[in-house]
Amino acid sequence: MCPKFCGGGTHRQIKSFLEQGRFVCFSGTPCQIEGLKNFLKKNYDNLITVDVVCRAVPSPLIFRKYVEYQKKVLSDNIKTVRFRDKHYGYKYSTMNVITDRNHGNYHQGVESDPWLRAFFSNICDRLSCHSCHFRKQYRVSDFTIWDCFNVGRFSKELDNDKGATRVLVHTEKGREIFNAIKDDFSYIEIAPEAAVAGAKEMKESVAPNEKRESFFKDANRMSGEELFNKYFPETFKVKAEHSIRLACYKLGIYSVAKKLYVRLTHKY
Question: Which of helix, strand or coil describes residue 232?
Fold first, then answer.
């Protein structure tokens, strides 16, 4: 859990709103939801909680190094960084960096963007994420939500590359809310066991990267450019994989190619 979140007054503000009778919908990682519940020490009918299935929480320091790196590489001031941008569709989400001059032309995916490569290598996570106590199917929140990249397993109609979300409803309050809004979107009902099948992030902590300690030591003494060039250089392999992904996208076969990859590797 982020220390700034805990000490920034968010909990006290939520409690104040609730006691005023205001409705509050609070979303966050599972640890943040349980932290709020423990702080409040009682249930509130006007509180709705939504936890987002979390792979791990990366270090703010490393993200600052990433922004520093991009500022140097792109030779421009960074205005905005968008996570999970859908420039190439839902199934090939990218980091989108917007500067004063490029207006968001930077789109790189998990195979080539240094921040995504660092995150998915488990080298920049908080230590607590490697032994997370909040990964479980049944949670204290009203709803659990997360991406359904393999939506084609459940519905051909919803497999349209526009995005689909898995939802677990945990409480009676959650069920009442879902029933009240379900006519406003397309959905299908599946068994909870089918929803969580293959979703390791629901119950399993990520394994620590053996280079994590040295990575953070270097992060505290190196520039962003030096750090990412040392640990995540733009090699021929990286360039080749990026080119192959783009080619599949432009040929209109990216979804098919990804399904084949998932089938061969059993990665979801």
Answer: coil
What are the C-alpha distances in Å from 228 to residues 4, 120, 223? 26, 14, 9
Find all residues with CB under 8 Å of 41, minimum gap 6, and list them. Answer: none
Helix (H/G/I), strand (E/B), else coil: 181: helix
Token readout for 251 is 């040929």
Give the residue carrying structure tokens 């640890």.
31
**Contacting residues for 89 by C-beta, under 8 A, at least 6 apart:** 161, 249, 254, 255
Residue 67 contacts residue 78 (beta carbons within 8 Å): yes
Could you tell me if residue 104 is left (phi over 0), alpha (psi between -120 and 50 degrees) or otherwise beta?
left
Percent of the chain with pLDDT over 70: 94
Residue 50: name the closest of 148, 173, 231 by CA.
173
Going by C-alpha positions, the residue among 132, 128, 85, 130 that lies closest to residue 104 is 85
168 alpha carbon, distance to own chain's centre: 17
Q: How many residues does the chain have?
A: 268
**Residue-wise pLDDT tens digits, 115-165:** 999 999 999 999 999 999 999 999 999 999 999 988 988 999 998 888 899
pTM: 0.86
8 Å CB contact between 76 and 102: yes
Of the CA atoms within 13 Å of residue 121, those in its CB half-sphere come to: 19
Dist CA 108 CA 115 (whole Å): 10
